[in-house]
Write a structure and sequence with these properties.
Layout: E1 12-14, E2 20-23, E3 29-31, H1 37-46, H2 48-59, H3 65-68, H4 75-90
Antiparallel strand pairs: 1-2, 2-3
Amino acid sequence: MPPLPSEVWKHFRKSADKSTASCLLCSATIQLHCGTSDLRNHIKFKHPSVDNKKASPDVSKQQTLHQVFAPRPSSSETINQALANFVVQAYVPMIYSADKTRNCE
């Protein structure tokens, strides 16, 4: 099965000899070498508004600074909370001893 054509071809037309492509937005002629990288770069640098339309949905997924640097519970707080939830939900009796040297068996 042949690969799908690149989205970049919406903005270009290949020449008859297939060695160049013409931009449909500005009529610039781009040499074709081994792929669509030169075509993508032309769109990216010469027509950024066209390139940004493709990228704009991803921008909404980016986290804000408040989300990135929000205070997070320490790992001991998380473990304590998980243990407390387990004890409460499973009705497990908890033995606590102030003597840390004593082994509970």
